[in-house]
Amino acid sequence: MSIRQLKVSGVRNLQPLEITPHAGVNFIYGDNGCGKTSILEAIALMASGKSFRTTKIQHVLNHEADRIEMFLEVDDEERGVCTMDSLRLKNGDTLLKLNGSVLTSQAEAAHWLPVQIIDPNTFKLLSGSPEERRQFIDWGVFHVEHKFMEQWKTFRKQLKQRNAVLKQKELEWLPTWTAGFIESAEVIDQHRQAYLKRFKPEFEKILSQLDESIDVQLAYYRGWDKDTPLVDVLEKQQERDLVIGYTQSGPHRAELRIKVGKLPAAEILSRGQQKTVVSALKIAQGALFQQESQRRTIYLVDDLASELDEKHRHALCKLLESLDCQVFITSIDKEKLTDVWQPSASKMFHVEQGVIVEE
Ligand SMILES: Nc1ncnc2c1ncn2[C@@H]1O[C@H](COP(=O)(O)OP(=O)(O)OP(=O)(O)O)[C@@H](O)[C@H]1O
C-alpha cells in the first residue's frame, strides 16, 4: 500500500496541500510549528478517524475552516489503484468514500489504509494504560482476521448487557448473559493468543536488529487466570460483580505485559531504549501484517531524531527501508535525516509556515 497522491485542506495551519509522495521514503523537514506533524496527522486521521495528538478532532480543524477535506489516490496490493475521500465537518459529521462509494464505517477505511505511527508520544504504548496495549494487539488481529471487528462488537455488546444486568440485579437474566459473554470472550481471547504467538518471534527479531543489548519479554495476560476456565472465574466473582455492578474479569481486562526481567520495561529502560522497543513493536506489527496479508503498512515517523542517537536512527531507517514500505519521516533538520541514511528511493519535502514544497 502506498499513497500516490495526497490532497488535504482544513487541517491545523496547513495551506491546502497537494503532493505526490514517493512509494518509498518521504522526508519532510522544516522549523518548529511549520506543520510537519500536521501532515502525518492528516494521514492518520484518514486511516483511523483519530488523531495521535488529541482526542478532540475539532482541534485538528483549522481555526478558520468549517471542514477537513482529504483525497488520496492509493496503490493497494489487493485492490490496485483506488481513491479514498473524506469530509469531516465541524459538528463531527463524517463522510468516507472508497472509489466514490460511501463507506459505512471508519473500520473499513482503516482496513484499506493500514498505518503505523512512531512519534514522540509513542512511549505511551509502554507506560500508558493496558487499553493502549490491547488496542495494539487488536490492530494486529483486525488487519488479518476480517471477522474480528464483528466479533469484537459482539463481545462489547455482551459485556455491556451483562454489566447492565449486574447493576439492575436482574438475577433471572444473569445466566443467559453470562453464557453469551463467555462465548464471545473466548473468541476474542483465542484470536489475541494466536496473534501474539506469531507476533513474538517477529518482535524479537526486529528488536535485535535495532539494538541487540535490549532484552525485553512480552507476556500476555488474558484478563482472567490462565489455568481457570472463565465460567469458574465468573461464578466465583459473581457476588462481588453484583456489588460493584461490573464484570471484573474477561478480555476487557487483558494486558500485554512488557518487562525487563520481572519489572515493567517502562520503569527500567531509558527514554531512547523505550523508543527503540516501541519502534520494534510497531515495525514487527507491520512486518507480520505484510507477511500474512501480502499488503504493506505505511509508516508515519514523526520527529525521527527525538530520543534516538545517530546509531539508532540509522538502524531504524535501514530497517524501514528493508521492509520496502512507504514511509513518511519528519525532522527539524534536513541533516538529521540524511546524515544517517540516503535511501535509493526517496523524495524530500520542505514545509514552511504551512506550505509544503517538494525539492
Ligand atoms: N486548529 C488549528 N488551526 C490553525 N493552526 C493551528 C491549529 N492547531 C495548531 N495550529 C498551529 O499549527 C502548527 C502545527 O504545527 P505542527 O505541530 O504540525 O508543527 P511541526 O512542524 O510538527 O512542529 P515541531 O517541529 O515543533 O513538532 C503550529 O504552528 C500550531 O500553532
UniProtKB/TrEMBL annotation:
<keyword id="KW-0235">DNA replication</keyword>
<feature type="binding site">
    <location>
        <begin position="30"/>
        <end position="37"/>
    </location>
    <ligand>
        <name>ATP</name>
    </ligand>
</feature>
<dbReference type="InterPro" id="IPR042174">
    <property type="entry name" value="RecF_2"/>
</dbReference>
<keyword id="KW-0963">Cytoplasm</keyword>
<dbReference type="InterPro" id="IPR018078">
    <property type="entry name" value="DNA-binding_RecF_CS"/>
</dbReference>
<keyword id="KW-0742">SOS response</keyword>
<keyword id="KW-0067">ATP-binding</keyword>
<keyword id="KW-0238">DNA-binding</keyword>
<dbReference type="InterPro" id="IPR003395">
    <property type="entry name" value="RecF/RecN/SMC_N"/>
</dbReference>
<dbReference type="InterPro" id="IPR001238">
    <property type="entry name" value="DNA-binding_RecF"/>
</dbReference>
<feature type="domain" description="RecF/RecN/SMC N-terminal">
    <location>
        <begin position="3"/>
        <end position="355"/>
    </location>
</feature>
<keyword id="KW-0227">DNA damage</keyword>
<keyword id="KW-0547">Nucleotide-binding</keyword>
<protein>
    <recommendedName>
        <fullName>DNA replication and repair protein RecF</fullName>
    </recommendedName>
</protein>
<keyword id="KW-0234">DNA repair</keyword>
<comment type="similarity">
    <text>Belongs to the RecF family.</text>
</comment>
<dbReference type="InterPro" id="IPR027417">
    <property type="entry name" value="P-loop_NTPase"/>
</dbReference>
<comment type="function">
    <text>The RecF protein is involved in DNA metabolism; it is required for DNA replication and normal SOS inducibility. RecF binds preferentially to single-stranded, linear DNA. It also seems to bind ATP.</text>
</comment>
<dbReference type="Pfam" id="PF02463">
    <property type="entry name" value="SMC_N"/>
</dbReference>
